[in-house]
Amino acid sequence: MRKISTIIFDMYGVILEESKGKFVPYTYMHFDASEHDKIRKQFREEQLFTRAGNGEFSSDTFLSLLGYENPQYHMKDYLDNYLTLDSGFIPFAEAHYRKLDFVLLSNDVSEWSAYITEHYGLNKYFKDKIVSGDVKCRKPDKRIFELTLDRIGKAASECVFIDNSVINLEAAETLGINSILFNRDQVEYAGRTVNSFEELAEEIEAF
Question: Which of 95, 113, 159, 177 has the fewest CB atoms within 10 Å of its CB?
Answer without folding.
Answer: 95
